[in-house]
Amino acid sequence: MTEGFENSRDHGDIHQSVKRFERMLKNNEFYFFDVDEFEDLIDHYMEAGNSKQALKVVNFGCQQHPSSFTLLLYKAQLLASSHKPREALEVLAKVETGEPNNIDIYLIKATVFSQLREYRKAIDNYKLSLPLASKEELEDIYISLAFEYENLDEYPVAIKYLKKTLALNCENETALYEIGFCFDINEICQQGIEFFQEFLDSNPYSHAAWYNLGLLYNKLDMYEKSVSCFDFTIAIKEDFASAWFNKANAFGKMGDYEKAIESYKKTIEIDEEDGTTFFHIANCYEALDRKEDALNYYHKSISADPYFGDAYLHLGFLYEEMGRLNESIHFVKKAIDLDPKQVEYLLAYGSIQIRIGFFQEGINAFEEVISLQNDNPLAPSLLAHALFLSGDVESSYEVILKAIKDQPDNASNYYLHAANLFRENKKEEGLAELEKGLILCRDDQDRFVSFYPESLDDLDILELLAKYNKDL
What we know:
- With 472 residues, the chain is an all-alpha fold.
- It is 76% helix and 0% strand.
- Helix 24 (393-406) packs antiparallel against helix 25 (411-423).
């Protein structure tokens, strides 16, 4: 039943087709649509993000036009996007018998095999599509090939195809960012720098190329050159927030915290308020010993992102440093609430609890760390110290002796064992254990002093420390 309906593609009246199709479904009736109308309907629903309805259309279309390879290709594409790869391959096999030179067969098959993580088969199909591709299609196929080789961790081959993409279109920003990523992750940053320098000789106004060159210089700790590249990026595209952000990072690495803060704040002006940027500004203020400003920006960080655990942790550290221990505990606990199995949070929580004098809470935290990460280098010595301070000397000895057995190269364990021996008036044994720790790590003497502050009043201990300190 055509109802005198003309081809929608002739006059663009897709809305009439949509109304007819939806009325047909609602009334459980049968209306005839030609292939072009079905294509328009499918495109309409796909553009609206309604793949379920699009699949209904294509199924009706295939019933009315079973010999239409175009509709079968649509069906395969929709099945692939609906995570039904095997069904998509079955449909494509039917199309391939009738139209073996249809490029869409190979492109959709490649997508399906990529979904199935059969990356070699995806690559094979992309390569089969190459002789059939237009220049515009080649650009997309080369990038897709690069992605598949990245999936296989074959970054040099990915770089080869990304270079082919850029040879076709030097303004392809996706290719520029991906090639920068490949040089970085494959640890061939110097080659990447040479590539972008040569590329910029021919394309000096490519902000994406300047930006990626800056990232590679950053990776090699060449921060002044990195900043210079980000300045070129910003000169071409002033509102490029990522360039301002990474410029700030480079200033931070150089120790120029004032300039870093200035660039981070510019990032916020351009982009929406972001917890990470506020966090970095707070770090810079902390480095400048501007504690109140740091507190302010850590609070801004968690206001912008209430799930930013590290911001809560750093607030806790800063409040601890300022002697505001109750507030410190509160914010570290907030971090733990977000991620109860994050070892760094638990260690901080336990250490502050011990400082306050809540030994059992600290002991529980350190025991939790050991249960989560039995090879953690800090937790056993911290647990033994907490047990000793709580009065459970016997358990403290057991823990530290086991820690020494399990981690014989960890100086902290010897430092704590020595501190415990000194407290038990076993001075000779304590000096022997202290020396073992100093031999392993002589530049970590502050840890021993934190375990046994009384050492600063003992001449024998000071003499031993001085012996290993003289060459530092």
